[in-house]
Amino acid sequence: MSPPKNLLAVRQKNEKRLKMETFGKKIIRFNKELNFKGELQNGIQVMNPFKENDEILSIIDSFYNKFYNDHKKRRKLKLIKKFANTS
After folding, report:
1. How far apart are CA 1 and CA 75, in angstroms?
2. Domain limits at 55?
3. Is residue 13 part of a domain?
4. What's the number of domains the chain is made of?
5. Backbone Cα Rg of the chain
6. Position 55 in a domain
7. 45: buried, middle or exposed (CB in 10 Å: 19+, 13-18, 0-12)?
8. Contact indicator for 50, 31 with CB cutoff of 8 Å
């Protein structure tokens, strides 16, 4: 059973939009949509300045649109810091 035609059209439109979206816009969208739904210990809460503070959102918007307003591929760097037991 295939999905309805209107659903396919919406999916194709979203895929096209995402392909055209700059790297900076993708980061901004990720930060806006970031949502934690897990359980936390009592007294622990999640802070998300991207959702809670319009000034922060304005700053990251300016930053990513200035420095990442392109479609270049990027690589993630995995940095692992090892701590030596000095006792």
Report:
1. 38
2. 22-70
3. no
4. 1
5. 19
6. yes
7. exposed
8. yes
Q: What number of helices (H) and strands (E) belong to the chain? A: 4, 0
Q: Please give the Cα distance from 57 to 55 (Å, whole number).
A: 5
Token pair recorded at residue 37? 């739904």
Structure-block tokens of residue 40 = 């936390």
Cα separation, 14 vs 40, in Å, equals 33
Domain assignment present for residue 38? The answer is yes
Query: DSSP label at 42?
Result: T
Rounded distance between C-alpha atoms, residue 51 and residue 31, angstroms:
8
pLDDT in tens, 39-72: 999 999 888 888 888 899 899 999 999 998 888 8
Range of lowest pLDDT (26-40, 41-55, 69-83) = 69-83
Residue 10 lies in a domain: no
